[in-house]
Structures are given as structure tokens and as C-alpha cells.
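Course assignment 3, question 2. Fill in each field.
Student: A.L.
Task: Predict the tertiary structure for the chain below.
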Amino acid sequence: MGIDPIQRLVVPRVLAAITVALMLNGFVAFVGIVGGYFFSVGLQGSSAGSYFAGFATLAQSSDLYVGALKAALFGLIAGVVASHKGLTAKGGPQGVGDAVNAAVVQAFLLLFSVNFLVTAVYTEIVPPRGR
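Answer field:
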């Protein structure tokens, strides 16, 4: 039919994976901060001021930026690997199942490696505060 599958199928899915990963990262960061506040203040009985002072001492804005960068990279990698495996699947339903399994394994290994590399570079560039 003359439709480019990369432009029509892959690009929207990869962009959607990046967007969802970034939104999920923001949600998890927010829930983590709010949950830490309620645990510290509500369950442990510390003051709100001490929680925010400790949070400001230990947390850096660059931590949030690197988290967003990692989320975007993870969405990109997962989207590209899944799209590649989906476009090259052969052998009917069995081949699709095999492609899904291969995509999950390859994406996990790539995500683990990228996470390690980005974290190693980040910890060399930005020294930890307050520890």
C-alpha cells in the first residue's frame, strides 16, 4: 500500500513509550516524596520542618533530572526493541510469542546496562551531598 511502517507504526509507539515513561516517573517521584512525608511525620512523629530540612539536605534537583533522563531513555529503548521485534516476527502465532519473549529479555538487558552506565556517569559528575 506504500505506507512506511517506521513512520506509521514505530515512531508513534516509541514517542508514546517515552511519554508514558516520563509521566510514570513524575508520578512515582511525587508519590515517593508525599509517602516519605506521611511516613516521617505521621508514623514516626517527626516535624514537617525536619522532614523538609532532611529532604533538602539529601535530595538534589539534578537527581530528578537524571531520573527523567533515565525514564526517557528507558521508554526509547523499550519502544525501539519492541517495535523491532514486532516488525521482524516470523512463523505465525508461535513466532509472535517468541518475538515478545525475545523483546522482553533484550529490553531488560539493555535497560539494566543503560541504567548502570547512566548511574555510573552521574555519580562521577555529581558528588552526593549530605552523606
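Instructor remarks: Residues 5-125 form one domain. DSSP finds four helices and no strands in the chain.
Grade: pending
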